[in-house]
Amino acid sequence: MELAGDEKRIQALFSELRFEDQSLAPSFKRLWQSAQTTKPKRLLFVEPMVVLGSVAMIVALAMWTRDTSTQPAFERDVAAVVPTVDSRVEAPKKLSSRKRRPLQRKKAWPKEPEHVVIEQAAVLSSWQSPTNALMEFTAGTVFKSLPDLTESVTDLESYLSINEVKELKQ
Amino acid sequence: MELAELRLQLEELHTASFGWALSCCRQNYAEAEEVLQTVYLKILQGKASFDGQSKLQTWLFAVIRNTAISERRKSLVRSIATPSFENTIDARSQIELERSEVQQRFQAALQRLPARQRETLHLVFYQELSLSEAAQVMSISIGSARQHYERGKKRLRELLDREEMDYGIGWRRKENPGTVL
What we know:
The complex is a heterodimer of chains A (170) and B (181). Chain A is an all-alpha fold and 170 residues long. Chain A has a domain of 37 residues. In chain A, 55% of the residues lie in helices and 0% in strands. Chain A contains eight helices and no strands. Chain A starts with a helix and ends with a helix. By secondary structure, chain B is mainly α. Chain B has two domains: 98 residues, Rna Polymerase Sigma Factor, Chain: A (Orthogonal Bundle); 74 residues, Winged helix-like DNA-binding domain superfamily/Winged helix DNA-binding domain (Arc Repressor Mutant, subunit A, Orthogonal Bundle). In chain B, helix 2 crosses helix 3 and helix 6 packs across helix 7. The termini of chain B are far apart. Classes of the chains: A mainly alpha (170), B mainly alpha (181). Chains A and B meet through helix 1 and helix 2 of A and helix 1, helix 2, helix 3, helix 5 and helix 6 of B.
């Protein structure tokens, strides 16, 4: 490669640098021997990373198993009361573009005996709201029955108060 | 290749290898020595083995370069964890004091070049490798190596001219402090 003026100048500077570096270079024997005696270095900064990674994995695994194994108390109660859906009736399929994840197996809870279920159903059917009493009032009959146009005057008078009847008669 | 034979060839290349290690470690003497020792250790342990597909020098230089990069990463993490700069600064300044003024300016200009350009110039001018060999060491295409070489030369020339100009101004000021420039 033929060198131009600037290249010659750069070459000269590099040659000078090489000459200076040669005087600084450590002896080959020393480096070779110390390499031979050196044991493989322990990876100081890799080890904590491995520990941190494994701890994170354990935590993630613990959280995942907790989510899959435990069922909320509410779901358990509902499952006990609500009768099971006939297995022959298929639920409508959801229209979804996403692929469905494989269903995770849930832990089967023990079924309660039939008479207990019936008792619980009876309790539920006879249940009344505590605010029902507030719906009762004195003039309830007025709203419960309406006058009919074909009724006689005497019948219609029964819907009026005593004072109103007196006023009409006067 | 047997270890004894390899050892002899490594010994022949030792000075050039140290020069290359110095360039990869930004002229840090202690770091370059550590890198070279690690390279020899890798060879002894068989972690780096020469398969004879290329020249021994290009293979060795590629190993030195990769080791220097990984060592720099490690030292960066270490410096974040436990910062201590005193020793490295002392060692570096001591070596810089021993260099001539022209060399110091040349070094400063080199350090301002992008790493790839600096490496290409070093391999071509200092190690006297061809561009294809330099490309092999740096694991890049010959086209990229040529581009780094041309750009590096141009930039280095500019930097050296600027340095010389600054030096001239500084020198004149020293000689005649009253001069208004």
